[in-house]
Predict the 3D structure of the following.
Amino acid sequence: MTLEETAVTSAIVRSFAEEFLEDLELDVAVAGAGPSGLTAARYLAKAGARVAVFERHLYVGGGMWGGGMLFPRIVIQEEAREIMEETGVSLKPCGEGLFVVDAVEAVSRSAASAIEAGARIWIGMGVEDLVVREGDRVCGVVLNWMAVERAGLHVDPLALRSRLVIDATGHDAEVCRTLARKAPGLRLLTGDGAVAGERSMWAEKGEKELVHNTRQVYPGLIVAGMTANAVFGSHRMGAVFGGMLLSGREAARLALELLRP
Ligand code: 48F
């Protein structure tokens, strides 16, 4: 066998192009591959939806990698145990109703199980805007390479269609903030401030409010994870992750309900 450089190029470009073209019409586009986005993608794919996750960085996992203050461990509550266990992660009891998990294992298995379920994960691609039309309905995402964003280049993005979008971009609620700037209607669905911003740490309250905050905030746009708490002005929680998983599952449930004919 001779190893032709062009064979490598061809394999990479063809495979990318074929699969990316397949994703031009999605049921759900998820912005952000943190714990809530990966969990939502896994449940959606498992239920048969066509789902892709767009992650700005070259790595997935969001805030899970760093655990608490760079100690690579995360804490999960009993309520979310099942969601984590389904990925194959081992949980060690560490107090009443609490489990500790290795952060590297949690990221790896969360991503692998989403892919095994049928979700696609695109990395290095950020959601910089939304496609909004047909009666002010979100119906797609506008994408660009993170490298372009970092270099500050003036390069126009590309877009794809998606029946629903989940904003799982974390603390900064980036997609919602962009929409709030461009489509004032977001205010109607979220109250006075379109994106209230997260409040200081209060783990128990923040966790309790998170699933309730996981909602459709604009026709076609659902919020999950810390984005949901940031949009509705709830508290941050630190390195406890059960709520992120429960919120991801709830976002998937809501999306499936909305996708039903
Ligand atoms: O921040 P992140 O992990 O969000 P999450 O799912 O989980 C929060 C926890 O990690 C933790 C916590 C636990 O109590 O509070 O912080 O809510 O993951 C968000 C992902 O979205 C990516 C970002 O790189 C990260 O991997 N991201 C952010 N903005 C964009 C984006 C964007 N515009 N387009 C694509 N990806």
The chain has one domain: 13-259. Residues 31-37, 54-57, 62-64, 126-127, 168-170, 174, 225-227, 236-238, 240-241, 244 surround 48F (CB under 6 Å).
